[in-house]
Amino acid sequence: MDLNLMSADITAKRTINCFELWRIDRLWTLFILQFGSSCYFFSVESKSWDKAREFCRTTEADLVVINTNDEKSGVGNQAVWIGLTDKAQEGTWKWVDGSPLTLQFWEKDQPDNGGGRVSYGEEDCIQIRNTPGFWNDVSCETSLRWICEKGATLFV
Is 81 helix (H, G, I), strand (E, B) or coil? Predict the structure, then answer.
C-alpha cells in the first residue's frame, strides 16, 4: 500500500449559496447577489478605490471583475467602483486579478485621464456610471460605493 497516497492532501469543493458564504464572514446578507459562479456584495457606504478594495479583501473577495455582457448587466447601472485600474502603467488597464482588459464598456470619450485638466488629477480607477452603466475613469480618491466579488465555491 502506498503511504504517500494515504497521506495525500485531499481537498473537496462544493458550490454554496452566496448568502451562506458571506454569512460565514459575518457580513450583511441584504446586499448580496448570486450570478453564475460568483457572489457579489453591494456596499451601502462610500470609500476611495483603495479603501473599497481593502474592505473586499478582508472578506476574501476583491473588487468586481467584469468578464461578460451578462455580468455587466447583472451588476447593474449604479455609480460604483469596479476592479479595473491603470495605476501600474498609464493607459494599460488591468483587472485586480491581473488579467488584461478585453471586454470594454467605456462611456463616450473615456477613458480620458481627466481630459488634461489638472483639477481632476490622475484618473487611474474605474467607476460604473449610473446611466446607462458605462465606464468612466476617475481619481482613485473619489468616494464611491463599490461591488465585491468572490467565487461561490468553498474548498473544504
Answer: strand
pTM over 0.70: yes
Query: Above 80 in pLDDT, residue 123?
Result: yes
Q: Which amino acid does the sequence have at 57? A: R
Nearest to 152 by CA among 16, 13, 12, 11: 16
Domains of the chain: 12-155 (3.10.100.10)
Number of helices followed by number of strands (H, E) in the chain: 4, 10
- 117 burial level (CB within 10 Å; 0-12, 13-18, 19+): exposed
Q: From residue 123, how far is each of 3, 9, 49, 67 by CA, in Å?
A: 57, 45, 11, 22
